[in-house]
Amino acid sequence: MTSPQPTQIALNGLSLGTSQVWGSVRLVPLTRDQPIEDLRLSEQCWGGPTAVSLPDNTSYFAFIPHAFVASWSHDDTPVASLGTQPANAAKSKSQHFQVRFAHRMAKRERQRGVAVPRLRFLPLHTAFEAYLALHFAGPNVLRREYSQRVLSQGLSPRVEMVTPGAWLPGLEEALRVFEIRDGQVGMLLFVADVFAGAFVLPHPEDYRRLHRTLLSDCYGELVFRYACLSTQAAALVRPLRDKNINSFEDLRVELARARADWTSSHHSMASGLFEQDVHVQHVYRLGKSYRLERFLPDFRLRQENHIGEQITGRDGETAYLKTFRLSEAQVRRGYLLSTLARHDWDLYASAAALNTDKLELCSRLERAGFGDMLRAHLRRRDGH
Amino acid sequence: MTARESMSTRLLELEREDLLSFINAALACTGQDEFYGDATGQALSIGFFHAYVLGNYRRLYAHCLAAGINDFNRTKIIFNLLTTPAGVPAQQREQEGRLIAAALPELPPPRVYRLLEALVDRRVNNRRTRRIVADYLAGRRDPQLHALKYRRRIAKIAAHFHLRLQPEESAVLFNVKRLRRYQTPLFETFRRAHYEKRAVYELPYTVAEGLAARHKIPRETFLRGIAPRLTTRERLRLQSSAAALGVAAVAETDLSRHSLTRLAIYFLSLSLRERTAQFEALDAAMQRAAQQIVRHPSAKLGRVALVADNSYSSRGSGQKRKRPLALALAAHYLLGAAASELTTHWTWPIASLAELRPRGHTDLATPILNALALRPELLIVVSDGYDNDPPGGAAEVVRVFRERLDPKGAVSLIHLSPSYDAGSYMVKSIHPAMHSLGIRDVEGIPTLLTFVRFAAGSANLHELQDYLQARAHDLLAAKDHLR
């Protein structure tokens, strides 16, 4: 399923605009020259805790405020996107205690038992699941250092905390005053000039409708902290170089150059996403030409690591993209697990690879929240 | 120059800056929600500014009443002057009183009554205020209508200030049923309307509305009956809701009596289809209204280029719905009438005015560049001053134009902003070379253009004081003339 060769995420068929800043939030619009007509996305509001049962008999519980529905056509004819379906108000009384049950992360919709060209999937959770399920089964070699539980049950339950966008101070206001461009299909989000995530949709109309769903999305701990601590993003200026301007034509050329510089500087600000090596995993095939995929990074410590999901079209065009920036602790957990797995869960070999010794590796595992994995004698106890 | 002299020059400069930014803020701010700021922040900011100017430059603060600032701030000035009379010399107090008395009748009656009610709540009651209130009430053009329309407020004001009332007016204000019969026809109709449905339709709309509800008259029936009594503004306001109820009689056909700003707001409130259908009539009405404003020869301008902001932020707020865009549209008509030649550049180009709507990002740099390339005598930008493609691009274009392409300043650059920035106590300016002024109604633009030289900094404090004094003098003279 997972591609063996690491690849990179690219914004194919998209161009960047100039940023709009409000408080600590900087939003960079992404526009598409040619909107995609034969794949459309719309939203289903759920607004509550959801349990997703996965094909391998595990369950995924999360607060999932909404689901996306992708509609496509088998030939290249345009499709209309579904209307938004608001949550049923009449049911809201008991909804507090209701858990919605969803079957699979991505599921083909059926009408009266007949499959229709519509796919319901859970934005970001499709990618989260890949991250949470990383080496979920636990050690594949029976080693004495590991506890009985992890050998029999794997890493279950695996828990991660994220912050809803509505909690990020200033994000709601920034989304309200943002002026959506013509032909805009996506957005790069920076908080305190730190890249927080990318969001791309197939069609400008979809984007207009789903602009505010950035509020119901999840953000990592790092992004939340930055949003709380910073009040103002840097006031960037790109002065016009007036030395050689002697006519309006020169001024026009210089203005165009300034615009291009803005675009490239935004691109480099977001380079953490575009320059990381990722492993892409196929999730679903939509029609002939579109594929829903999710990706995981290589978990590089003290660097930007983004997980996400995307729909790519013919010629690798990015029809849909949603990314999540892992917090430092999440990166560490991913890093430790993948190092262990690479060395067949051998603590000595892994410690050597990490330039440390076995005891230090054990305490690192414990600090990362994997203390339960280890036998009691390897765990640090109070008083020692 | 001695240290003392340089200090006093600096103080004069400071005073000039303070006054200018106060007038500028008072031109635009109304204490309401803006696109980029909420009402609380606006009210807090402008409230502080008033207290500051009142405390430091009280005499000029009173003169600001005549400086063409908006109604909200004039009301606020009057309130502040009347609530803080202590320690003011008698002569200055008398002059303030005369200015207030001259300014009150120029304000819309609802605002005045709200102001007087606020004085009642603040328990202000002194000889000067009593006299001002009595004078205002005596000078009204339609006191009987006011007695009905603002009944509860006037009753409160009359009781607080111990005003002497006519017996009939007193009865209407405090207990309608006290008299069996009224000599004043309007009062008699009002009394009858308490018992008789038919009499409701002989009353003015706002008075009749409450009585109709008391008689449980259905809205359609009421609108149909009251239609002949509606004023033009009520018609403009009610026609769409009446049309939704199937009442055609309310439709406003005569657009010639409305101001340009109001027509522009009305135009933008229509749907695209309605606008296209009625475009010719609306276009002609707006042109006529613009001609009315600039009929004075001093209002004529030369070759003008207008850069108008129709980005998404020009939709304003829930309280100022589409007002920034309406001002840009009205400015387009006004300058069309005033200028010998006008070119208009919208930030989001449109094929016809009928399809004008707030939309897209703000690229001020390109339209400013296009406008300047035509070498106009005057460039006017109507925008909230926030540009984002590229950010600060407009400022850079203006800077380079002034430094490299027009060092002698042949083109005058003016920025009119409909929104007040609460944080910086001024309207958000684009670049120092482009003078920024606040704007609430386009009718004030000709006056604003005479005020630009102060904003430009070419005039010193004494000239500004003289200007304000002269405006105050004009206001008082106009009042005397009316008598």
Detailed description of the structure:
Chain B: This is VWA domain-containing protein. Chain A: This is ARG and Rhodanese-Phosphatase-superfamily-associated domain-containing protein. The complex is a heterodimer of chains A (384) and B (483). Chain A has helices at residues 92-95, 125-132, 148-153, 171-177, 204-210, 221-229, 248-269, 271-274, 328-342, 347-353, 358-370; strands at residues 14-16, 20-22, 25-32, 39-53, 59-72, 100-103, 106-111, 114-121, 163-164, 184-191, 194-200, 218-219, 278-286, 290-297, 306-312, 318-325. With 384 residues, chain A is α+β, with helices and mostly antiparallel strands. In chain A, strands 1, 2, 3, 10, 11, 13, 14, 15 and 16 form a nine-stranded antiparallel β-sheet that branches. Chain A has a five-stranded mixed β-sheet with strand order 6-4-5-8-7. In chain A, strands 9-12 form a two-stranded antiparallel ribbon. In chain A, strand 10 and strand 11 form a beta hairpin. The longest helix of chain A is centred in the last third of the chain and has 22 residues, at 248-269. The two termini of chain A are 45 Å apart. Chain B is an alpha/beta fold and 483 residues long. Chain B has a domain at 261-456: Rossmann fold. In chain B, helix 21 links the parallel strand 3 (378-382) and strand 4 (412-417). Chain B starts with a helix and ends with a helix. In chain B, 42% of the residues are buried.
CATH fold naming of the domain at 261-456 in chain B: Rossmann fold
Largest sheet of chain B: 5 strands, parallel
How much of the sequence lies in strands of chain A comes to: 25-35%
Our count of helices of chain B gives 23
The total of beta strands of chain B comes to 7
Structural class per helix/strand content of chain A?
Answer: alpha+beta
Oligomer: heterodimer
Shape of chain A: globular
In CATH, the architecture of the domain at 261-456 in chain B is 3-Layer(aba) Sandwich
**Tally of contiguous helical segments of chain A:** 11
Shape of chain B: globular
Most extensive interface, chain pair and sizes: A-B, 28 and 29 residues
Pfam family, one (chain A): ARPP-2
Organism (chain A): Enhygromyxa salina
Domain ARG and Rhodanese-Phosphatase-superfamily-associated (chain A): 10-287
Protein name (chain A): ARG and Rhodanese-Phosphatase-superfamily-associated domain-containing protein
